[in-house]
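Repro case for the chain-ordering regression, as requested:
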Amino acid sequence: MIKNQMRMTHQRDIILRELRKSTAHPTADELYERIKKELPRISLATVYRNLEILSTAGLIKKLEISGRRKRFDGELRRHHHVYCLLCHRVDNIDLGQEENFQFLPAEAGGYRITGCRIEFFGICPDCKKKTQGDKKDGL
Amino acid sequence: MIKNQMRMTHQRDIILRELRKSTAHPTADELYERIKKELPRISLATVYRNLEILSTAGLIKKLEISGRRKRFDGELRRHHHVYCLLCHRVDNIDLGQEENFQFLPAEAGGYRITGCRIEFFGICPDCKKKTQGDKKDGL
DNA sequence: CTTAGTGCAAACTGTTTGCAGAGGG
DNA sequence: CCCTCTGCAAACAGTTTGCACTAAG
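-- result from build under test --
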């Protein structure tokens, strides 16, 4: 399995920059929409391909998170996320001193555990505002 | 929002039973394949529709978990999962005394947090066996 | 009887892939 | 100049939906 050369193309570079410049955890097509302003002829397939390549190369992270679309993160340090049940946005969350707590299961059912993901969900500040006064049920 | 009548059809009942009888967290089409043996004329759309209805009614749980297919769980009590990175199966995991630990973030970024999901990943017993002796890289 | 639920096929959403040509190193 | 990458379109996987018929209560 010889590691082949990864070229830093203009498209790839812009995708990487765009991803690093916010903490918004965009989906492939959110990224595509933003990048089109700068590079109008880029195709969605290129965005998908590069996100895959960049995450395999370890330059970005692919998030396994609620919702049906994949999300990507330019921040490589270990951290966790909050997911808004209403608008589906994803933010970072600070776990304080718990951050380094090694949360390991008593009984792993024979699994070799390689990692753990902690995800919070709830209502984001904007959606809280929008539903202020409403009686939203089921949440 | 008047709750309409949910009829317990033969299909729905079998789906519910099937889901309750194992801890395998099946996807819609795994369930479909199993149920077809008993009910050969059932359609995949019916399985999807019923899983949606049953989870809205709170009789089963829809899992937000790694992988691209939705998974469903007949166990309603709070528990967490392990995901096999190789074969994608999902098992329950026992967190021991940590189970009731209220893992709440120091700084929720203005979110109203309604819940938290903890997911482990790794290699399941079967895949461990299969890769025994191999030098698998990247895990 | 009424109206929720069914099977089927077709639509839809998010993602991946084959191909011929472009451009990074 | 080679070979990775690109844009495009078409394929794909998983899920949802419109419709006319069926069956639960």
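Ordering looks correct now. The interface with chain B takes residues 1, 64, 66-68, 82, 84-85, 91-98, 103, 105-125, 128, 137, 139 of chain A (CB under 8 Å).
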